[in-house]
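If your schedule permits, I should be very grateful for your opinion on a structural question. I have a record of one protein: its chain in single-letter code and its fold written as discrete structure tokens. Kindly check, if you would, that the fold set down in the tokens agrees with what the sequence suggests. I remain grateful for any guidance, and I place the record below:

***
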Amino acid sequence: MEKPLRASELLTVGLGAGLLLKDKLEESWERMRARGEQGRDEADRLRQRAEQRYEREAADWEAKIKDKVREVIKDLGLATREDVEAAVQAKD
């Protein structure tokens, strides 16, 4: 059975995938632009779609990382900000 990824591993994987995607898209974009004016328009559309997709996926990765960090905090029994605030209010 595979061990679940740690938060730091998720972050590393997400960043690596994002950078690899960015490099590959830039290479494709430059090849398309070199083909001529029609290629430039096509390349610009491709770049815009890729940027939009990257932003959506980056948001998904960020949410997954936050969830994983919360899970690790819970597993370790660490107090969250809400726990500390509730304890301070209960003390007052």
Summary: The CA atoms of residues 8 and 65 lie 8 Å apart. The chain has one domain: 7-91. DSSP finds three helices and no strands in the chain.
